[in-house]
Each structure stands twice: as structure tokens, then as C-alpha cells.
Amino acid sequence: MGSDRGAVPNSSVVTGISVRVAGADDVPALAWLRREWTGEVGGAADDPGFEERFAAWCASEAGRRLIWIAEADGAPIGMVNLALFERMPRPGVAPSRWGYLANAFVLAAYRDRGVGRLLMDALLDHARTAGLVRVVLSPTERSVPFYERAGFGPADMLLVQEPLEPDRQ
Q1: How far, CA to CA in Å, does 90 sit from each of 87, 95, 97?
Q2: How far is residue 44 from each of residues 36, 76, 160, 168, measured CA to CA in Å?
Q3: Residue-number span of the structural domain to which 40 is assigned
Q4: Is residue 66 part of a domain?
């Protein structure tokens, strides 16, 4: 990909990794990854109805969201998704779309080994191919260097209003 991305040393790259767009059969693996993520940040792991809610969410989002899954020898190790937004048509202006990158996660044992970059490359390749005018995200402080290496920069043209307290979202 572009030369503005940080290179991953060959000695740290995991072999046997595949990245692909997830399908309906991958929902249990994606739910498992989401549980792992939640547990890692100290969230509640005891939620018997989570898998069912997650599957319903995936089904409701299927028309406007793509999820990529990373696997090592067939086992899920990471994911990222892209929500697509179609702009309202205007007379005399070509239609356009943009994407919101969300929920990028790689299992701790596979971090700093190129898996995140593979996920990001797949998502950004899709964005270019689909002709998206921009991809935006809301990074954690820890993830900013990763996204900067992938070519992201400050979004001076966007504004945000946060009507809810962070713990209520």
C-alpha cells in the first residue's frame, strides 16, 4: 500500500493470516471477538443474551456495514468494520458516499505483528474501490499512532456534539 504507512518488520509478521469480509456464518466468531475485547477493557463478560443481540445487530446492519475478520489458521484473531453512509442527493451533484471505521480489534497475542495493518489495508482498499470520499473514525488515544501510520490525520472539517455522558452510550 502507500509509503506513508509504517513498515512492519518481517520478523514480527505472523504467517498464516488471512483477512476477508465476514459473512453470516462468521457471526459467532465476531461475537466471541467482541466478548474478548469487552473483557480486556474490564467490561462485563456475564451476559447470556449477548450472542443473540449481536446476531440481530449484524443482521440489521448488513445492508450498510461491512465487517472484515482476520484469522490465523482458521481461528478468529481480529476484526474491523466500516459503516457506509450515502449522502442525500442534490441536483447537478454526483452522488457520494463516505465510511465510518469502527470496532478495530486484534487479540493481544497477535498485536504488533501486522494483523491490524492487514485489516486496515483491506478496509481502505475497499473504500478506494467503492469510491468513498472519506473514511472517518473516533480513535482511542492509544490507537492514534496506528491510524496515523495508516494515513489518517486530524479532521478539522468535522464537528461533534456529545449529548450523552460517555458511560451512558
Answers
A1: 9, 8, 13
A2: 10, 21, 28, 15
A3: 13-168
A4: yes
Separation between Cα atoms, residue 77 and residue 72, nearest integer Å: 7
Is the pLDDT assigned to residue 168 strictly greater than 60? Answer: no
Give the number of domains in the chain: 1
Strand, coil or helix: 71: strand
Strands 135-136 and 97-106: parallel
Q: Do the domain assignments include residue 50? A: yes
Please check whether residue 4 lies inside any domain of the structure. no
Tell me the C-alpha distance between 114 and 81, whole Å.
17
CATH of the domain at 97: 3.40.630.30
pLDDT per position as a tens digit, 88-132? 999 999 999 999 999 999 999 999 999 999 999 999 999 999 999
Measure the CA–CA gap between 97 and 56, rounded to whole angstroms. Answer: 25
Classify residue 114: in a domain, yes or no: yes
CA torsion angle for 84, 129, 3, 106 (degrees, to 10)?
50
Per residue in 53-82, is it b (16+ CB within 10 Å) or e — as a string?
A: ebeeebeeeeeebbbbbbbbeeebbbbbbb
The three-class DSSP label of residue 98 is strand
